[in-house]
UniProtKB/TrEMBL annotation:
Organism the protein comes from: Sphingomonas alpina
Domain spans labelled ABC transporter: 4-234
GO MF annotation terms: ABC-type maltose transporter activity; ATP binding; ATP hydrolysis activity
Family: Belongs to the ABC transporter superfamily.
GO cellular component: ATP-binding cassette (ABC) transporter complex, substrate-binding subunit-containing; maltose transport complex
Record carries keyword Transport: yes
Keyword entries, A-Z: ATP-binding, Nucleotide-binding, Transport
Parent-record interval covered: 1 to 238 of 285
Record's protein name: sn-glycerol-3-phosphate ABC transporter ATP-binding protein UgpC
Length: 238
């Protein structure tokens, strides 16, 4: 069980406040999508949840536990970046197993986790290839697989499809929806693509200059944007 809460979450770099009093309750199992223009703080917000950035003020909790002082590896989260960051010299199998080996899990357990993740993502036939022998979509699937093997309670995705071509982006969108259905895990997903947000999200969080502008279901935001900014981003064009 892992809900995610942000309470007055604020982050400054020097004198620049990049996140300002973000209050948000993300339910266990919810698919939440952060949208907003470039530079509005989406990645910083994910990094704060992941523990890769420390808050200047406020609190993050995961599964009811305050994690401000908990190391990223101990937060029960896994993050997938837009650049896949696969190890080029390792096979797909080794890439998937790498994090688990660091945790010193028994070999049989690692093999089982790798096989299960490969089956979920339909990459079982690619396990002995190197990343350079894969297409963009296959690489992205391996990157997601590396997150899945760790059985996180929360997945964080930072614009995971932005390096893919348009057709593949559409196909992968369905895969994310399927993955959420299969795993039932809390998913926090950043994109600047409105269609992606509308199709994937249980709720969308619209960010503007480090603040939450509006939170709601895709239908709510589309039909009843609170501000012109939200309307411009997701709202009905009328
Ligand atoms: P987004 O992902 O929405 O494009 P980011 O969270 O990456 O936005 O960045 C938000 C703002 O914070 C930007 O103005 C960016 O330049 C600034 N920023 C991000 N990381 C750092 C950092 N490590 N040091 C200084 N400024 C940063
Ligand atoms: Mg970003």
């Amino acid at each position: 069980m892992a809900d995610v809460r942000l309470m007055q979450a604020s982050k400054s770099f020097g004198t620049t406040e990049v996140l300002r009093d973000v209050n948000l309750e993300i339910a266990d199992g919810e698919f939440i999508v952060f949208v907003g223009p470039s530079g509005c703080g989406k990645s910083t917000l994910l990094r704060v949840i992941a523990g890769l950035e420390e808050l200047t003020r406020g609190e993050v909790s995961i599964g009811g536990r305050t994690v401000n002082d908990i190391a990223p590896a101990d937060r029960g989260i896994a993050m997938v970046f837009q650049s896949y960051a696969l190890y080029p010299h390792m096979s797909v199998r080794e890439n998937l197993a790498f994090g688990l080996k660091l945790q010193r899990l028994p070999r049989a357990e690692i093999d089982a986790a790798v096989e299960a993740a490969a089956a979920t993502l339909d990459i079982g036939h690619l396990l002995d290839r190197k990343p350079k022998q894969l297409s963009g979509g296959q690489r992205q699937r391996v990157a997601i697989g590396r997150a899945i093997v760790r059985k996180p309670q929360v997945f964080l995705f930072d614009e995971p499809l932005s390096n893919l071509d348009a057709a593949l982006r559409v196909r992968m969108r369905y895969e994310f929806a399927g993955l959420h259905k299969t795993l039932g895990t809390t998913m926090i997903y950043v994109t600047h693509d409105q269609v992606e947000a509308m199709t994937l999200a249980d709720r969308i969080v619209v960010l503007s200059a480090g603040r939450v502008e509006q939170v709601g279901t895709p239908a709510e935001l589309y039909a009843h944007p609170d501000t012109i900014f939200v309307a411009g981003f997701i709202g009905s064009p009328k």
